[in-house]
């Protein structure tokens, strides 16, 4: 790149920064003006309170609310401008539309910056239609689509910039495939904080997912570190921008695996200028739909039970309830119930005989209403039948008799009883068992909810306009059937089938597609998180022939054996100390079980080390000791996996945990064991 080009860009950056400073001043003045007016209005109301009638008070209140809202928007605008001043843009394309139009210089940043004096867009939001070309095309023919039309033309120049604290660190002229240099730089950085935005380096296939506006259900199946969660959050930011008239952050819901993960990703949308979206865990949803009427085991407890004891009967129960076949059987049984469990008898009331076929026919005619909710309709029809015969209204006592007789014609009155009956009907009563505490097993919770929805109905979540489901592999077809009935909105569902924490109960994209046949499936094979060496190591645990590892190199993972656990712990303590001097910012010590994590925590305990358990609600920076289950979705510069011994990692579920733990490492991975190493890393 010529010196003059770079010099020119640096000057242009200064020009833009000046304009930003000027814009910030103007917003500041407006904010001051709003707050003065607001104060004056409040004072006026206070002073004239006695002279104002109710209507005046309401009007004054509304005016204050309006002013406060406008003031808040100005404050938000100022925040965005301040951020832009630090890093105004990261890319530029010069585009010539076909038909001899003018060349447009499109500088792309995290937000729009519109120069009100010149009435031009100085910076385009990365989500603007024209900005899509930055991600989709290199130099040459290009096009972009607006809601109204497709514009074709040519990109004649393309540049990338790294601007931090208002200073241009470097710029790259893109004659060929651009993204790799800057992407490599971004990926090799240390990470000490929560998840970050990736707007400057979104890849083409990722961009297609982010900007997909049409899919009613979008399933993203991607290998570990392929950017699924990042993409899903950028997709939400995109949808909030594209459909800003009809969708706000509060209308989106993310079903997240746990509170730590929810906290870990909570920075991304605010960084992109959007508000955080509401979050819920599956268990919270279950509790809400079941109206807190049942006590049940949660998913963490189910997985812990599977890890701690190899109980064949328990595994069989979990496995049976996670198949698509199970959902099919539930549906078959519901048809059986519909056809056989309402058994009307002839009724004698008010001197009239109501024949049972009439009652049956009325009951069936309401097949669209859940069975347990049909009685009011059927009873009303019977009353009408009697009125037609007797030409009089029924007495209170007669009505009470009807209300007693009709519900009794149904062979059950309680959803849980019916759910238990399902197992008798299917000839497998042994598949229903409560935990040793008398709670429902986790595997029964969503089938029970499914029955509740079908038999009693349930509240729906119509206020949710987009549902995001992360870690899709951990949910069963029945869970998806429940989600499809509760949430009628569009959905983005993402996960990685190799990262199941419960191999007996997991879904892949094709399985989920059976519940959502209208879904678009996208598969991502390029892994960005880990060095080539770490990805290659993890591939030996679960080989995916389609996976593409980043050509980013680092130290090969090490596997170190010790004579005893005590020696192993001493070595881990040393590694933690070394980490503190290493220049890395985050370390995850990832164990198989909670007990092991607690043990390491007690042994290594030192200032600044955090233990994450299923009860934790926040992600912590620095050194974290936790389990593979909880570490899922997180990442660390360095990962230590203790107790990688033959005894500790021997079953299928153990292997999954090991895989999850290893794939959390970005730059360095160390496994330790005492006596004999696990066969999985042999
Ligand atoms: N286009 C990109 N530019 C820069 N960084 C990226 C890009 N795509 C992904 N990354 C980085 O790769 C890492 C993994 O991303 P993310 O956590 O979203 O992946 P994931 O597929 O959800 O991972 P996992 O399933 O293993 O938890 C993150 O550090 C993310 O910032």
UniProtKB/TrEMBL annotation:
UniProt keyword annotations, A-Z: ATP-binding, Helicase, Hydrolase, Nucleotide-binding
MF terms in GO: 3'-5' DNA helicase activity; ATP binding; ATP hydrolysis activity; DNA binding
Annotated ranges, domain UvrD-like helicase ATP-binding: 201-531
Binding-site positions, ATP: 222-229
Ion transport listed as a keyword: no
Chloroplast in keyword set: no
GO biological process, one term: recombinational repair
Entry GO CC: cytosol
Protein name: DNA helicase-2 / ATP-dependent DNA helicase PcrA
Species for this entry: Chryseolinea serpens
